[in-house]
């Protein structure tokens, strides 16, 4: 089978995998055994592009490939002209709170906004600039003013009006303050007033803690807080779409942290928030929004503390009763990730070897039998049962290939047998110390 | 009556017999210068014919007559045998009656020395009521009974029966029965009527006073046949001697011989053989009598009779020894007679001899008895095995083997014996008993015991009684010593129970004396010698362990105390040895259990093996419920879940098949992680690959999607485009070209503000400018952006640029 891969993809794959992270490009070449998931995901992506909103729960245990899938989602969505943001739930970040923890999550989301030209996040100013430029050029075009002239003071009013217009189109709740702040941002942009621009950004990112402060800097009465951050997100989503992006994708990982909230009321409120989002998305109240939650099985189906402890969610998220391991229904909101089996890992490693050979344009002295041996060796290591993940297998495999390439004379079997694996799981003792309420 | 008379006669006669107290010359004259005719040995008996003066006496020894010094001759005093009446003293009237009856009886006997059948039947008919026919027929006892019970008329009935039976009896039968088989007319050979009388219904007279043998506890006939009561004028002399070949011993049915007179009933041939036998015997020649003991017994009586004449006890002893060697059956009679004779003599030699005779093993050693009293005693059993000296054997033979569970283990027994002998030897050699030798100390002890126990000896049998008491004491002494030693060995061998040492049986009162004389020095000596005891060998160990089920604990403690974590192998070896010597221990499983418990910390596999063996060793025991290992040990051994179940499977299999090898092999691998075999399914792989192919295509499709941006049109309107100078295949306007050029020239990066400035100059916004360039290049770069943001700068990936550069 001829390998259809580009050189830069190959390089990216090998480099990233050797470091244990998902490559940014060429990831499709190492997506083995995830056909159904990818299909489900791409279908969802298409739906979102077409104006629907979707919430997906990616449920899987340690090593089942959650992170990989999220990365993949990220990459694909970016390519699909999505504005993408990743945030992790932490003990300080939640969906619902009244002590600023929800805003903290919002801030994290807005901080990590990424687009294709700015894939590492922090693309919010770029996006705003882009939008303003769009509005300005549109205005210039509409009023037959040259682009150089339109920046002049006298056209400020005109542009402000146009901005307000667009804002009014894309926002509903809290739209006024949002518009005011955006205009402030434009003002700073035109006037090259950096402080103003930064203050506006700070407001948009939800970093103002008090209203007084915000009013002093920007003259607005309202700030983004625990209660209205979701509306802000929705506003942004519309704004991004109006700029010309396909949609806004928010990936929220480590949902177990919601499960870990110690007070049941607070937990319930958070789950309620999820329900709200879920309902909004699937009822069409919001469009072009794609929210992914990733978490462990416990987070989902623990009847006492997980999502299933909240009946409204339980009924919505329950597994299709007709699903089996063989025939899976991936159209449902909950997608359970199954760890790769040996065959899949074998294919993956084989593929990796090919990519590696392609990348360095060599012929590695690794046969299929060697790969088999390597796998056996890995799975027979101490503790392999508990904490061996594909990530480690792949990383070690790439490392071995790398050493073999540079030292062709080395005994490959000896190399394979010297591998040691370590526990990369999060510290379980944290779970144990949770007090059951 | 005659018995009494004869006994007195012999006594009178024997008063002239002397015994040599030392080796003594018989000279032809009464001075030392005279020729020595014969040298008497100590104990030789001589007949003093005449005492010449106080110094010299004329003596006869066998055929030699000469003179000897009286100084060395001891007179033999024959002790009177006390008479005990056989019958109770009857009343005067009954005596008178008896006299009358005996008168009648005597009369009848005298008149009818030859019994007539007809007369006998007549008497029984008429005088049957008084039993007269019984007297007539010599059945005196029955006769007396009949007289006594005549008033019951039963004798009369018996008389009638007798009459009928006698009348019906033919003459020869009658003669055989009542006339010793002699027909009336041939009665010429008849000698003394007593013999005839006693012939058919011989009675043995028992002398109660001679029952000493019984008291000695030796298996011996209770009766002593009084052989001295009759004297015979044997007709042997009158028989012809012939030098016929006597190889053929004439047949003589075995009968019970009561006196030498029984030779009378022998036939000619038998008599002839006897004469021959006797003559040879007196010359100390041995003749094979081919099991016809009658000859030997007759000779026995003959010899006794001869002895009365010569009184030479030494000769008699020699003769008897020879006789016994010819016919062992005579042994105990000969011995009894000898003892009797010795006892009746008062001289020193006889006394000493008697003492020797009373040694328990004397009879066996000198052939008088087939029975060896020491046969089963320790000395005999171990003399060859331990190559013991004579002294040592005798020390061991002093008592019966005190078998018990401990000494029945041979190793223990040997150890005890060795220590026992060693101790005795040491004490004997060094006079460890207060400067006395062992024997001296025994004698001293005996004297004290006599006083303490107030022992009284019958003067008649004093020698024997003393000897008997001494032997008992001796046995007690040595047995006690042996037990003391055994206790020490028990302690040393870690045998659980100690032997309880009884008080000094049978002389309980003398216990303190014994303690002082023997026990204390022995104990002292023992404590010195204790370390010389060899360690028990493995066989002994295992026997001891079988008896002492917790004996292993000490050894196990030693093993665990000396344990070092690096030396598990040694532990294994030691425990293996311990198990080996405990294989008969019914509690062996406890060792296994403890071992498993102990070693778990250091070697899990070993612990498992021991525990598995624990199960197996107990499997056969009924109602066995194996003890679980302590939780802490279990935790060490079975860290992972499922390991207990796995172990139990191994045990189950082991118990089913008893195949320890297999179980051990699987236990050795118990902690080796099971190698998981990864099985790859070719078709499955193909399927996965195909699926993957689909995924790649799908994703590639999504990732390379190109959207036509509207704002490009805006740019196109305002700026004329021309074919790019630097990038092939696309059209760029001036500003775009200018920007790319600037970035490239500025080592692939440019500050955002510069871009903004450039854009502003040309009436554009920087983002739009950048986007438009990326837009143009995206097709060439397969959807990747040429210009990316990096902090405050815009950058171009060098590799990307090179790919599309002209």
Q: Specify the helix fraction band of chain B.
A: 40-55%
Q: Tell me, what's the shape of chain B?
A: elongated
Number of helices of chain B: 35
State the distance separating the first and last CA atoms of chain A.
57 Å
Average pLDDT of chain A, rounded to a whole number, is 83
Poorly predicted tracts of residues of chain A: 428-437
* Chain pair sharing the greatest interface: A-B, 55 and 50 residues
Q: What order do the strands of the largest sheet of chain B run in, or round the barrel if closed?
A: 6-5-4-1-7
| Total domain modules of chain A | 3
Describe this structure as you would to a colleague.
The complex is a heterodimer of chains A (437) and B (806). With 437 residues, chain A is α/β, with parallel strands linked by helices. Chain A has three domains: 34-115 and 245-336, Rossmann fold (3-Layer(aba) Sandwich); 124-218, no CATH class; 342-417. Chain A has helices at 7-18, 35-49, 66-79, 101-111, 124-143, 147-150, 156-170, 175-191, 194-204, 211-218, 229-243, 256-259, 264-283, 297-301, 311-317, 342-360, 368-379, 384-387, 390-406, 412-417, 429-432, and strands spanning 54-59, 82-88, 247-253, 289-295, 334-336. In chain A, strands 2-3-4-1-5 form a five-stranded parallel β-sheet, sandwiched between helices. The radius of gyration of chain A is 25 Å and the shape is globular. Helix content of chain B is 53%, strand content 6%. Chain B is built from 35 helices and twelve strands. In chain B, the strands form four sheets. A five-stranded antiparallel β-sheet of chain B has the order 6-5-4-1-7, with no helix packed on it. In chain B, strands 10-12-11 form a three-stranded antiparallel β-sheet. In chain B, helix 3 packs antiparallel against helix 6, helix 24 (568-581) runs antiparallel to helix 25 (588-599) and helix 28 (643-657) packs antiparallel against helix 29. The longest helix of chain B has 31 residues, at 462-492. Chain B starts with a helix and ends with a helix.
